[in-house]
Amino acid sequence: MDVARAAEVSSSTVSYVLSGKRPISKETAERVQRAIRDLQYRPNAGARALASARSNVIALVVPLRAGQNVPVVMEFVTAVVTKARAADHDVLLLTQDEGVAGLRRVSASALADALIVMDVQADDPRLTTLRQLEAPCVLIGLPDRPTGLACVDLDFAAAGALAVEHLADLGHRAVGLVGQPAAVYERKTSYAPRLISGLRDAATHRGVDVAVQQCESTFEGLQACVAQLLAEQPETTALVVHNEAVLPALTTVLLEHRRRVPASMSVVAICPDDMAATHAVSFTNIAIPAEDLGSIAVDMVMGQLEAGAPAETRLLAPVLTVRASTGAPRKPR
Amino acid sequence: MDVARAAEVSSSTVSYVLSGKRPISKETAERVQRAIRDLQYRPNAGARALASARSNVIALVVPLRAGQNVPVVMEFVTAVVTKARAADHDVLLLTQDEGVAGLRRVSASALADALIVMDVQADDPRLTTLRQLEAPCVLIGLPDRPTGLACVDLDFAAAGALAVEHLADLGHRAVGLVGQPAAVYERKTSYAPRLISGLRDAATHRGVDVAVQQCESTFEGLQACVAQLLAEQPETTALVVHNEAVLPALTTVLLEHRRRVPASMSVVAICPDDMAATHAVSFTNIAIPAEDLGSIAVDMVMGQLEAGAPAETRLLAPVLTVRASTGAPRKPR
DNA sequence: AAAAGTCATCGAAGCGCTTCGACGCTTCGT
DNA sequence: ACGAAGCGTCGAAGCGCTTCGATGACTTTT
Predict the structure, then answer these.
(1) CA of A20 to C1' of C30 (A)
(2) Is the CB of B35 under 7 A from strand D?
(3) What is the number of CB-based contacts under 8 A between chain A and chain B?
(4) Nearest nucleotide (C1') to the CA of residue A13?
(5) A45-52 and B45-52 helices, crossing angle to 10°
(6) How do residues B110-159 score in pLDDT, each as one tens digit?
(7) Residues 6+ apart with CB under 8 A from B45
(8) What pTM was estimated for this model as a whole?
(9) Using CA atoms, how far apart are residues A319 and A193, in angstroms rounded to an integer?
């Protein structure tokens, strides 16, 4: 290695300067650093991975084109990449459709040191494989049986409850849920049912009636959903919307039913904060903290990698921000 | 290597079976394949990269959170990943914000064999660096001086022209452009001005008046944009919308001006096909062929990598699909 | 029948790093 | 004042592959 020659040290010394794994005198270290800078030296990633059995790469498995939560996915991804870079790791992108084989491939070939898997289903078929892998692995989402796997997610049950609490406090007695597309429930993506059960539990406690309706991510889907909801429970005065994609169309569709937000219909959205704020009506929302989740996922990965941290589950407490879309129902009884 | 032992051959033979770089007898090859399967053997990526000077990884540089074209970006990304996997390569994700340093790092450390860079600006500061890199590199987008760099993009000038042609054919004489957010123009992201100039040129040819207005990706932004457009050119009977994010709100905002789509206002959207079709009114659109672009980018990368193909520029011809949002102006003179 | 190819395979030399043990030197405790 | 302990550095042995030249066993050519 010519950096070593330029700095008049052995190549092992250069390595130790770079890794800090052994003490090096200040003068030597500086000499080496200068040589590195002068020669624009970058260690060869392959050689490094081979010798150290560490690639400094994290594999991130993203859903291909599931539902239309694309902006949320992208937020996750950038958060993960940014955080990973800060920890001196790179991110390899895998899509869902390589399935279990892709996970095995990446882990067994030592392409990546660890995995982060998004969009985990309640009984995800990848779970057993993931448990068998050498590489540590963090799930974003919460399967039914997370034993042995690290998970991080928003506490959707608490989020559902929080939404109901807020509305009940305002005086609402009948709430509708505009849910996710059917595909999401069929896929048994655990967050959707978790939200519903949290919502129902809280509603029971507070004596609030609840109607639940899935909702396709199109204009017509939303029309159908709202129509159904109001037919089923006409006294509905508030909506919880767990579908980012239909938010833009919501006020329009409600207007078709002579409902104004928030005067004759309150709305709590479950969506990222920035999305809540950029509509005709800014929506009171419970944040989907994509950035935090991504960042925490990387932290957990690094913890397992460096410190052999155990595989714990973290559910983030929901945060509700009051904006312009919720108020007291028109005729409080 | 124990696959070699199991198949009773030398490790070089295993390598040749895997790479096909030398003839191997059918029997031996089968023996080796079986051993590989039985032992679930996966070559170590680091060792392979080191020995062959090829990592089989493509670096993809995505814009961090530029504008709200997020779904389009995601389409690119999945297209690139899918296509790359088909060519036995993986994709490493870099964000814009690592800048030039990131490009150099990835290339010099041989982490990736090639780069694909999205969201290239007219006078992108990364250009000179990219030209200096060892690694071949493909831009998605079209800088002012693409010399020496491979580029692929939609022909936005032709797209602008095509939109005007379509509207002029229907009888429209005054067209407004709902443009991108100011940030995009400030960044000099070449596609936006290219669309405008193509649109203006065609308009001049066809004797159509054009008003151009940038548009922030919020409800209020759209309101302001449309108001401005109609104030400036009240005889406007058609809109070209080059901003996916405001499409959902468009019909609502136009209604505030007593304009219905397409009866009293025709609309051509520049957006991905799936986006055009899932609104209250399905929009006549010129497709942004994200999937094709991503796929072609990978093809070009592989061409440069395998065959030493030259760095050419490819501009894809725009395709307009007529849907429900365009028609003849109300009072053709 | 000898020379010249082919074909399928092997052995060994790296690829550019990290890491372990060793070594010489200084400092400390007693 | 002498052994123990610590510090800073070096040399060499890999890490697990690919690849090049070599080698036999055959086949074809002359």
Answers:
(1) 34
(2) no
(3) 129
(4) D9
(5) 140
(6) 999 999 999 999 999 999 999 999 999 999 999 999 998 999 999 999 99
(7) A46, A49, A55, A109, A110, A111, B55, B56
(8) 0.93
(9) 19
